[in-house]
Each structure stands twice: as C-alpha cells, then as structure tokens.
Write a structure and sequence with these properties.
- This protein has helices at 2-27, 56-73, 100-108, 117-122, 140-149; strands at residues 45-51, 78-84, 112-116, 135-137, 153-155.
- Helices cover 44% and strands 16% of the residues.
- The chain is globular and about 45 Å long.
- β1 (45-51), α2 (56-73) and β2 form a beta-alpha-beta unit.
- It has a 5-stranded parallel β-sheet, sandwiched between helices.
- The longest helix is centred in the N-terminal third of the chain and has 26 residues, at 2-27.
Amino acid sequence: MRRALLLASLSLAAAAAALEPAQQASAQAREAVLAEPKPSVDQPRRIVVSIAESDVQRANAVFSNVINIQEFYGTDSVVLAIVAYGPGVRHLIRGESQVAERVASLRAYDVTFIACGNTLDSLGKQPSDVLPGVEVVKAGLPEIVEKVLAGWIHLKP
C-alpha cells in the first residue's frame, strides 16, 4: 500500500514538473504584431482618447493607459490626444483639477489635452480657466469624430 502511494506521488510530481515549462511559456506575454505600415517618426500611430467621467480614479486609469501606449510605441512613433468633454472637463479646469500634476507631466511628453468648449460654457467657465497648455475646441465630440475621419484611432478606455 505504501509502495503504491509512493509511486502515485512520484507520478504526480513528474506530471507537474512536465507541465511547469508549458505553464511558464503560456504565462509570458506575447508581443503585439504591428500592422503595416509600422509606426515610425514619419508615420506615427495617431490615437485620440476620450474621457467623459469626473472620477479621479477613472482619470488616473485613462492617463496610465496613455502612458502604456506611449511606452509601447515610443514617444517618436505615436501622437496622443486626450479629449475631455462632459464631466471629464473638470480634470482640466484650473483650481478644480485633482490631476493637474499628471496633466502637466503628460504634456511634458507631448500628450495633447483638449477641452470641450460647450462643456466649459455650461459650467460657466472660460477657455482661460483651463490648465496651462490645454487646448479648447468648440465641441469635444465633433473633435473626436473629425480626428477619426482623418485617420486617428479613437479609444475610450
């Protein structure tokens, strides 16, 4: 009985050891296959990201996604713009934003921030009320539409 139990234990241990390399291989992330034309300085990926929520955790998650995208492609091979509309505009208003430092940091890495002018109007704010370097357009959603029609990829993480 002991011998049978010992043999069964050894068999299980051998099976587990045989599976370990396969499990390790499947746990490794695979590299994304880049579509043609591959991104470059001359042909960067152009990505517009929208944010319409006022939640600070949501904004930080969106900003982290943008950083990940930029790290993946490299700063010279991707152009990133974040369009804020609706409640998301509050992240870009001077004196109200709880993420102003992150916005400034991303701007230092050439991420463009665009605020919806219609939303600013509805909040009783002026274009001069946004954080330094933030662009203001008349309407945020049409800005996204026009970028998409011009070949940009729209992400709403």
